[in-house]
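ok so i was messing around last nite and threw this chain in just to see what happens. nothing serious, just curious
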Amino acid sequence: MYEMCHGHEYMLTRMNRSDRPSLAANSTFLALFSLSLCAFLVQVHLSKRLIGFTIAMVSGYILEVLGYIGRIMSYHDPFNEVYTNPNLLPPPPSNPQLTSRVMQKGFLMQMCCLTIAPAFLAAGIYLTLSRIVLAFGPDNSRIKPLSYPRIFIPCDILSLVLQALGGGMALAASHSNKSPDTGDHIMVTGLAFQVFTLLVLMILCTDFAVRTVVRMNRLGADASLDPTHTALR
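result:
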């Protein structure tokens, strides 16, 4: 066991190559999210509207960029969390720096940022959807336009709290040589709730789109759409 502490090379030789994050794929996603962030910032500067939507999307893009930077860091050092846990694998005396500043490690960067980022991007989608419903007819929606962000954003926050709580409990249990099952179950519950929330949103969006198309085909665009919101369309 102590032999494994004397360098990453020995551990990497015993590690299946597929277990490591893909450097090419994660670099591609990093480039795409970075370009998207820059393009969005330019668009925001030109439009100078929708403050809530802007904050949500910019925050999500920044977290995605940081998360994929962490993934790339994990490619070169996938065992950094193990090295920072003295109960799992004590660091060698010649490398005490491996135990310092855990929060800067790639493993924690990717876990935290890539878990939280989709919630911010989803919040931007909810805000956009409320505008779309308002522009194409609130009567075609099962719920009011403002109900989309008011219902689904708290649901995303709840799912994140469950994931963070479960992940923290599982990590604390593993560091104490205890079973992390309870924390794992809470974290999975948070993920399942997030998936269920997205499923409900997809059903509502599909229903709204179908009802809007049917109404427009039956009454015509001029009669079915509110002229007050023509600029939004």
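not much to say yet. The radius of gyration is 23 Å.
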